[in-house]
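Render this sequence as a predicted structure.
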Amino acid sequence: MPYDFTSTSVPAQEVQQRVSKLVKKAIKKSLPDGDKETWFFRSDTGTGKTTGFIQAIADSSNSFAIAVPTMVDVDSVYDDLFSLGVDVFRWHSNSGTEKKDGRGYRVVVGTHAFMLSEKDDPTRHIGDKDILIVDEVPSTARAKAVQHSDIVKAREYAEEYLSQELKDGFRNLEEWVQRRHGYAVDDGGNAAFHPIKVKHSPALLSAESEIVEIPNESAKRKLREVVEFLVAVSEQRAFERVMRGPKGHVMYYCWFAFPAYNFSKQIVFSATCHLDGLQFSPDGGKIVSEYCGFDVDYTNLTVWDVPYPVKEFPKAVSRFNLPDFEKAYDHVMAMVEHAALKNREIVVVCPKRMKESIAHKNDIPTSSETFTLHTYTRGDFLGCV
């Protein structure tokens, strides 16, 4: 059941406890050299995920790297950790610090762009850390998929170019896919995610030594694509996706490439990972209940998307000519006044110039004594939530 957060802070405390439990488990788990592991923690926006990992870090003696979406987030997380007495360092392009200065700190906070960079290893600057905390699934996380037809084509190329051992491996893989394809077509039911349970030949994972010698570029691409899928299966980064199509259900064999290239352990905190198939994480095959927070009940919330009453909305609000700006301002304030008839708390997310105008104008609706108006720019608002 969704939880109503309007009456108590108990769920936030529970989220914090669950976050702490996951952080401790991830730190404690030993991995063979070169291995990587990813855990996911899912809970709705505003339920305390960020607060939870901040407190867990403050309570721990281990070292952490923290990746957050924006520079505003970096500053916010840094301030919170610093206020708790944590030995913490921050770096972004406007922080006034040097990357290399973070090496001696127990905790380093940076943006996704810095901490998840493939080209510039962040540990080269900040040193190795016990674990990486990722706040929100980054935009650079890539999901890929192959279908039944891709596996068939790869098997055909294997028959033409690869050794007998690899031919046999691709034949067995095609047979498995054929069975799964039949399930999707005949008994798929509703669209759904499923964990991958295929057993494949270990030799397929090292097929690159033969693939590189193939003169046909199309064959190379297709075989490498399927091998990449099998590597993801071996690392438990893969899942099935059954989707409805115009001619029935279709099975996709999906995997995600998560771009934390330089850390062996990482925990991703997200409100939406369960919608992307990422719930089939390496730890036990899927997110279990102890790694989830709460679903929020939004039934008492009304959201209005107010279109601006102008034909074109310039990228820079400062380019608004005065008549158009006044139209937009008057329109938004009229909606505020209408909302104030039934609501005591109102949030307006608007361009910076309009926020400043609302703050300085004296024409706040006459009903203003009965409600509280919160005004944010888009960047500020996203930083709050």
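Summary. The first helix runs from residue 10 to 28. The chain has three domains: 10-141+259-291, 144-252, 317-384.
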